[in-house]
Amino acid sequence: MIDAPRGRTRPRWRSPLRRALAGTAVGLLAATGLVATAGTTQAAADTAQTADTVLAADTALAASTLGDAAAERGRYFGTAVAANHLGEADYVGTLNREFNSATPENEMKWDALEPQRGQFTFGNADRIVDHAQAQGMDVRGHTLVWHSQLPGWVGSLGTNDLRAAMNNHITTVMGHWRGEIHSWDVVNEAFQDGNSGARRSSPFQDRLGNGYIEEAFRTARAADPNAKLCYNDYNTDGINAKSNAVYNMVADFKQRGVPIDCVGFQSHFNAQSPVPADFQQNLQRFAALGVDVQITELDIEGSGTAQANNYRTVVNACLAVSRCTGITVWGVTDKYSWRSGGTPLLFDGNYNKKPAYDAVLAALGGTPGGGDPDPDPGDGSCTVSYEETDRWGDRFNGRVTVRAGDRAITGWTVTVTVTSPQRVSTTWNGTPSWDGSGNVMTMRPNGNGNLAAGQSTSFGFTVMANGTWTQPRLGGCVAST
Ligand code: G3I
């Protein structure tokens, strides 16, 4: 049975996807300088500004939340989300304020979505997706093919039925959220721990053989060509026999053209399984294969400075690898961690920020210990929203609207990150600068920096898709006043 994609008033690629992030004004970086309005690479300047203005004293303000700070580094910062906590005000408040990506912790697993063959129940997962979308968050899909949380009926199928069931599950689930999931964990934990580098026994491995992973990825690509397709595993964070086995599989896939876009490193760390010394090196070697790398389920047992230092190490490793596109922690608060009785997350059981939180925020370039508890547009800053305005066979135009909060501003800075191999070919109504990767564009005004309270302006750009139609990610709006 093929489930129809969710009813939407408009397809996701036309939606104002990204959260109108409040560029909260905490902590001055005092990056004063002159930002002259250089000519843009504009081609389609339908509403081009003509005034050449110099913005003196363009004061950049540090981001005060994990999501905003990560976005300014061209990355996302996400969390696992459980649907049954979405009614809890502190949980939702922390989730909405701090994170710009959400991964359903259990709600997209096979036993939750297809408890009986061919009967799909999307309700709890839809609640999370809807919540995330309303907040402008990305959604990671977790997970399609996994030996665990697998309903009993799957294990009792014969080979042909199992193959059909696996492909139908992937096609139906990905089809339900087609265009709405940033990255999917297509196959999860397919390798054994230990020194063998062997495949883990599972119904899929045992009946379909080694080729099941490749088959799952091919089916996934057909089901949602816009989603990034990831292989995800644990104890693969350092260089060891297990990560070598995954590495060899990814290298083989890339060489033979099997569709794979990313590798997820779960990064569940504790005293027995500490952050490996070669963590960054390991991320880098996978990235060098031509895949993105993502830290997908981060949590680190411990407390205080030691825990903070470990978190800092992980964040710095990701920032040092240009294809490390984001970090997800495996839960909002210690209260609901899967590590029962543990304290592995960034917020304690009362939603207080822990030293680990401050360390992560600082490593991302944000303001440690601070944070605006109320990222409301009315704080004298600015917000941003995105809309795709046109699409052709090889490109699309995007428009970012920048709106001042309850005080006038004299300038703004917004980052826009596109997904390689996409390229921005033209821009208008703004002055762009680029990071070394060419994927992260920092846009500043082109004569349209002075905004009265509540007033908005917009800038635009053309993205050459080069086969990838993932929507750009916006960093928060940083205002100058
Ligand atoms: O929802 C039921 C509840 O109705 C029942 O009363 C209760 C009693 O046991 O169980 C509840 O379900 C539990 C579920 O979490 C939701 O809390 C399951 O028993 C429990 O097994 C399940 O654990 C999840 C675990 O995956 C299962 O393998 C954890 O929440 C989840 O954090 C964890 O996540 C995994 C990733 O998917 C893959 N990588 C490792 C990671 C940590 O184990």
Brief synopsis:
InterPro entries: CBD2 (IPR001919), CBM2/CBM3_carb-bd_dom_sf (IPR008965), CBM2_carb-bd_dom_sf (IPR012291), GH (IPR017853), GH10 (IPR044846), GH10_AS (IPR031158), GH10_dom (IPR001000). It contains 12 helices and 20 strands.
What's the helix and strand layout?
Blueprint: E1 35-36, E2 54-55, H1 66-72, E3 76-81, H2 89-98, E4 101-104, H3 110-113, H4 123-134, E5 138-146, H5 152-155, H6 159-176, E6 183-188, H7 203-208, H8 211-223, E7 228-233, H9 241-256, E8 262-265, E9 268-269, H10 279-287, E10 292-300, H11 304-320, E11 324-329, H12 355-363, E12 382-391, E13 395-404, E14 411-417, E15 423-428, E16 431-434, E17 440-444, E18 456-464, E19 473-474, E20 478-480
Parallel strand pairs: 3-4, 3-11, 4-5, 5-6, 6-7, 7-8, 8-10, 9-10, 10-11
Antiparallel strand pairs: 1-2, 12-13, 13-18, 14-17, 14-19, 14-20, 15-18, 16-17
Helix pairs in contact: 6-8, 10-11, 11-12
The structure holds ligand G3I.
Residues 105-106, 148-149, 234, 266, 297, 338 line the site of ligand G3I.
Spell out the key features of this protein:
481 residues; alpha/beta; TIM Barrel; Immunoglobulin-like; 5-stranded antiparallel beta sheet; 26% helix; binds ligand G3I
Specify Rg, calculated over alpha carbons.
22 Å
CATH superfamily of the largest domain: Glycosidases
Q: State the domain count.
A: 2
Structure summary, number of beta strands: 20
